TrEMBL record:
Coiled coil: none annotated. A translational regulator that binds mRNA to regulate translation initiation and/or mRNA stability. Usually binds in the 5'-UTR at or near the Shine-Dalgarno sequence preventing ribosome-binding, thus repressing translation. Its main target seems to be the major flagellin gene, while its function is anatagonized by FliW. Belongs to the CsrA/RsmA family. One of its GO terms (biological process) is regulation of carbohydrate metabolic process. Gene3D superfamilies: Translational regulator CsrA. Pfam families: CsrA. This is Translational regulator CsrA. It comes from the Bacteria.
Length: 75
């Protein structure tokens, strides 16, 4: 993990098209601004994890349905 120190108004670049800027710091909260192309998805980590969990559950359900259909094909 790369750790950087930035002050309000300073930014970092990720590749050529993504900029992360520190907008403000208030106690233990930091406001970040992210400039990225529209095709780049940006999520808070807790939301990203929920999406991953839901996708995993959905794919398991699909596998279970396919297995059920396969096993009951001749019934």
């Amino acid at each position: 993990m790369l750790v950087l120190t930035r002050k309000t108004g300073e930014s970092i670049h990720v590749g050529d098209e993504i900029e992360v800027k520190v907008l403000s710091i208030d106690g233990d909260q930091i406001k970040l601004g992210i400039s990225a192309p529209k095709n780049v998805d940006i999520f808070r980590s807790e939301i990203y994890q929920l999406i991953q969990d839901e996708n995993k559950n959905a794919s398991q359900l699909s596998k279970d349905v396919l297995d059920f259909l396969k096993n009951n094909k001749n019934s």
